[in-house]
Amino acid sequence: MVEKRNLGHLIDSAANNHQRFIRRQLAPELTLPGYDQDAWVQAYAYQQSNWTDLVTPWTSYNLHLAAVIHHNIDPACAGHVWHRSQADHTLAFLADDYVVHLQHHLAQLGVA
């Protein structure tokens, strides 16, 4: 069974990563709050949503993020660091990791 909450998680992930991609360009070092994916998914109750209400924003947000990643990240900012409790990550790493994360979940949904 394909879970709507998986697609909902990808919407939440896009929203969180959008801020990370932009904010990390504006400051060489940055500390941002984490993302508790289970709490976000539970708060929205994605499983009760209509598929169209999930696919439409997910598609739009990811087209937007594709433009941000491919055309709007300043290469001079690629080494800017996000400090996390688990590890520090550069902007370049996070942009690459976002794509890997997205592909992983799309495979779970059976569309990659």
Under CATH at level 1, the class stands as: Mainly Alpha
Q: Helical percent range?
A: 55-70%
Examine the coordinates and then state which fold CATH places here, giving the name of the CATH topology.
Four Helix Bundle (Hemerythrin (Met), subunit A)
- In spatial order, strands of the major sheet run 1-2-3
Separate helix tally: 4
Strand-residue proportion: 5-15%
Outline the low-pLDDT stretches: none
Helix and strand run: HEHHEEH
**Main sheet?**
3 strands, mixed
Averaged pLDDT: 90
**Broad structural category:** mainly alpha
What does the model show?
The chain has one domain: Four Helix Bundle (Hemerythrin (Met), subunit A). The chain has 112 residues and is mostly helical. The protein has a three-stranded mixed sheet with strand order 1-2-3. The mean pLDDT is 90. Helix 1 packs parallel to helix 3 and helix 1 runs antiparallel to helix 4. It is globular.
Give the helices and strands, then pairings.
Blueprint: H1 4-26, E1 29-31, H2 37-44, H3 51-72, E2 81-83, E3 88-90, H4 91-109
Parallel strand pairs: 1-2
Antiparallel strand pairs: 2-3
Helix pairs in contact: 1-2, 1-3, 1-4
Short description:
The chain is mainly alpha-helical and 112 residues long.
Which structural traits does this protein have?
112 residues, mainly alpha, Four Helix Bundle (Hemerythrin (Met), subunit A), three-stranded mixed β-sheet, 3 strands, 8% strand, globular
